[in-house]
Write a structure and sequence with these properties.
With about 190 residues, this protein is an alpha+beta fold. The protein folds into two domains: about 140 residues, Bira Bifunctional Protein, Domain 2 (BirA Bifunctional Protein, domain 2); about 45 residues, SH3 type barrels, CATH 2.30.30.520. The protein has four helices and ten strands, in the order E-H-E-E-E-E-H-H-H-E-E-E-E-E. The radius of gyration is 17 Å and the shape is globular.
């Protein structure tokens, strides 16, 4: 689904909107399915370390200009419907729960939580948003490669903040911070 947002507060950056959207999707999934949903920085939702959903914020113009939030959830997708390369990394609510789900019910649950999280962010309660996001994050302690400004950095993730970025400890012991808008992340598979 797509949602048009018209931010009215400075804290409603693309990173902030992405964080609250991913959090709202995870909360909506849990409310409807009972499945535990985790978050991978900056915009993926996982169940059992497999991607079940993603969010994307598209904005043109100033920080307070309208933007479109895209939410994609694999709701009733069957294993054979995924392209072969995705079958080991993607999942759906139906695959994890063993039953189908009404998409409308899930959309309503996500939108309700999105409204609450948006109000928190707009009121300046970024610490609560970051804390709730971090509770669901499954990345701290994992090995990863970060690509930023044309360079690659490999190390261990030591901190994740959905609004400020990610901190990776390199083999040299140096810690480097990366902003969500300027970096991509490849996390090594733990399975």
């Amino acid at each position: 689904m797509s949602v048009v947002l018209r931010p009215q507060a400075p804290d409603c950056s693309a990173a902030g909107l992405t964080a609250i959207a991913a959090l709202a999707v995870a909360e909506g999934i849990e409310a409807v399915s009972g499945l535990r949903a985790a978050l991978d920085w900056p915009n993926d939702v996982t169940i059992a370390q497999r991607k079940v959903a993603g969010v994307l914020v598209e904005r043109r113009g100033e920080r307070l200009s309208p933007c479109v939030l895209g939410v994609g959830v694999n709701v009733n997708t069957r294993r054979e419907e995924f392209e072969p390369p995705l079958r080991s990394t993607a999942t759906s609510l139906a695959l994890e729960a063993g039953r189908d789900f009404p998409r409308e019910e899930l959309a309503a649950a996500i939108l309700s939580r999105l409204r609450s999280r948006y109000d928190e962010l707009a009121s300046g309660d970024r610490d609560e948003v970051a804390a709730q996001w971090l509770k669901r994050c499954s990345l701290v302690g994992r090995e990863a490669t970060v690509r930023s400004d044309g360079s690659s950095f490999h190390g261990t993730i030591v901190s994740v903040d959905p609004l400020d970025g990610i901190v990776v400890e390199l083999a040299s012991g140096e810690r480097r911070a990366f902003a969500p808008e300027k970096a991509t992340l490849e996390v090594e598979d733990r399975r």
